[in-house]
Structures are given as C-alpha cells and as structure tokens.
Amino acid sequence: MRKTLQLLTALALALPMTSFVPATTTSTPAQAAPQSPQTQEIGTEESTSVRVGGDNRSTVIERPGSGYVKLHFTDLRILPGDVLTVSNPDGTEKYTYMRDLKSSLTATIDSTGFWAMSITGDKAVVSVSNKLSRVRVDKLTRGYTEAEMSAQPSVQSICGTNDYKDAVCYQSSNPTEFGKTKSVAKLLKNGSSLCTAWRVGPKNHMLTNNHCFTSTNGIEVWFNYQCPTCGGTTSATVTKVLANSVLKTNAGLDYTLFNVKNFETITSFGYLELDARVPAVGEEMYIIGHPAGKLKKLSLRDNNNGGGYCVVRAVRVNGSSSQSDISYMCDTEGGSSGSPVLSRRTHKVIGLHHFGGCPNQGVRIDLVAAQINPLL
User: Fold this and answer.
1) pLDDT tens track for 164-178
2) Residue 64's domain is classified under what CATH number?
C-alpha cells in the first residue's frame, strides 16, 4: 500500500495539474488549473531571398516532401494592371494579387509585405505578368506532411488507446455523426501553427478558440481536408478561404467568432447549431477536429468507457474561468483546439474544445452562446 501511495504521489507531482472529477460527480468544480491549450506546430518557417521580375518573370520555389508551401512577399513593386500569381505547377490551385494587393482572395495587406495563400504540395510557382514589376520572397513555411504530423503524438491528450478515426470511417455505421463533420475546418496561421474551426449557423460565422487567434491576418481556413476512404493518407480536394474579421472574442471563455472571405465557396459544407444548456453527466458526445494537424478525425468511442461512446464526465469544471468547462475522455491532440463537442442526443454543439490532460476539456457552449447569439 505504501509503495502504491508513493507512486501515486510521484505521478501527481510529475504530471501537469488538471481537473479530475469522477463520472458520478455532477457539478463539483475542479480546483486545479487545467493543462495548456492544444495548438500545434505543423510547419517550419525559414528565411530565403528569391526575386521575381525583369527577365525572371516566373520561378518555381520547391521544398521536396512538403505537405504545402506558403510564401511571404516583400519589396513589392506591382505596376497598374499587373498581376502577381502564386500557383501549383499544373495551375489547378492558383491565387492572384493585384497592385493594391487587396482582393477577395487576400487579407488586408500592408504594402511592406504579406503572406500569400498556401499552395498544397511541395512546389509553388510565382510569376508576374509585367517584366517591370518586381517582388521578393523573403521567407516561407514548409508544411509538414501527414506522415510527419502523425509521428508527433500528444500522449497527454490520448486517454489510453487512441480511439479517434478518419471521419469517413463512420459514414455507414454512424451517418448522423458523419454528416456533422463537413462544416469543421482546419485552421492555419501563417503556415506554421494550427487549430480547428467550424461554421456556426447559416450565415458567415465561424468559431474557434481565443488562444488560436484574435487577429485575422494570415489566417487560412481549409474545408474538406479529409480522406475520402477510411484509413487513407491523402486528402480530398480542399477549399481554402481567408479569415476576414473578428466579430467577437473573449479570453475568459476562450472563443473567437469570425467571418471569412469568399463565403459563397463554403456554404455547401453546411453548419452546426448550438445547444445552449449545461449537458448532463454521462451524456454521450463526440468531437470533430484536426488533431495534430491530421486529416479530419471523429472522436466518438472511448476505451475508458468499455469501448462505448464518449461521455461527459463532469460539468462546471474550472477552465480559463471558474466553472466554465465540461470534461471528457474523448481523444484529442495538439491542433484539436477549437473543435466542436457535440451531444449524441441532439447532435448540436455543447462545448468548444480547448484543453488536453485526460480528462480533456471544452468550454460550456451555453456560456459562449449567451455572448454571441445576438451576432448570429
């Protein structure tokens, strides 16, 4: 018994402080601070110096084996009527920028430099349509591949066996849960860090965590970043849009409500609805997101519950604010921040995932809804 107590004491001292509440407890607030938020690095930024213009009106920038390439431009001299183009080699993914460097494809950009939209794959073609125009690529981000991201597990948020699966794996067995996955997107910040976001309501509104971003500059939103077959390693065709503006954000409840450019290109992905109530302890639930930056996953089952569905373990748990969270053992990883937590009873959102630690935690959506409903 003494050895057991010594072992438990050592583990308690070694592990990050978090909120552990038995499943039989309905609302007792945990007093310890939860683990840090679950953002994830998914790329490496590096300096470079590649000039385009004059006799060199087009060039290919390559980083072999990259999942994507994202370029930063500076020393801009774009003549009236000229166009700067960034594309993949076959032109199936292409973004254009005009002289004022403001278009439906770009964020508001300072004339001293800007991040262009990422290009999927390991090659980006940069070109200007007038030889008198000139730009310089001064830095870039090499995005990690799916294999590289999978090799970096966050064990403190995988609660026992890793039970999440590719979203499409549940298309037949759990069609309702699968049907809710379309409106969830991967969030990319300047090419190197990641969270998850999702459409809330039928209008141009999306939700993620406050710790993911509070300013929209350089924020990309990737819809349909998911494999079309269970166990696949490549994504279906991705639709990318840029975050446009922050509508409301709150650090205490760790949320950011924002809208995007080119909203019409993502309306087909549907939206989620809020379930503005405190869920019941033991209520079945699931999480949709991009753990570790991976292709979209559905965390539905929990080996800690005998392989049954994930359940809410406690409510009114301390998070960024007192009693602001719910807790669960659904598996997550870095990059899951901002994922929607849905009830299997209503298939509406009951939480906004933000902390790992086993149990993992999400902000109570009833508290978030009280602040954002007037804007939806």
Assistant:
1) 999 999 999 999 999
2) 2.60.120.340
